[in-house]
Amino acid sequence: MKITSSREVYKCSLFRVTEDRASDPKTGFKIKRSVVRHAGSAVMMAVDDRRRILLVRQYRLPAGRYIWELPAGRLDPGEKPLQAAKRELIEETGYPLRGAGPNWRRTSSAPVTWMSA
Asked: For a 10 Å CB count at each end of the chain, is N or C smaller?
């Protein structure tokens, strides 16, 4: 897919929204999408020795209810994704990071998702 046009349709202090059009040069398939763009975020998948995953329960206005999710949050200016993930883990759960070093690995191609082994 190749983006053929993009225009900003909304902007605030946290994010902006673009309306993007793209097409596949080989097939001619075309799409139009509204895309939320922001400075980045980090997600922490904390796994304990018994292989349990730590979740937090938070109220989400768009969902109109509480939902269970992984600790996550946006990057502060100048903050690296792993620093943000560690900060969010403490802020949202009260649990500090233990055993970082070689126990940490990236779990996706995105530069913001990390998992404790």
From this structure: C
The residue to which tokens 């883990």 are assigned: 89
DSSP structural state of residue 103: G
> Residue-wise pLDDT tens for the chain (117 aa)?
999 999 999 999 989 999 999 999 999 999 999 999 988 888 888 887 788 888 999 999 999 999 999 999 888 989 988 888 889 989 999 888 776 555 565 555 444 444 443
User: What is the distance between the alpha carbons of residues 103 and 78, in angstroms, rounded to a whole number?
Assistant: 24
Buried b (16+ CB within 10 A) or exposed e, 43-80: bbbbeeeeeeebebeeeeeeeeeeeeebbbbebeeeee
Distance in angstroms (rounded) separating the CA atoms of residues 68 and 56: 6
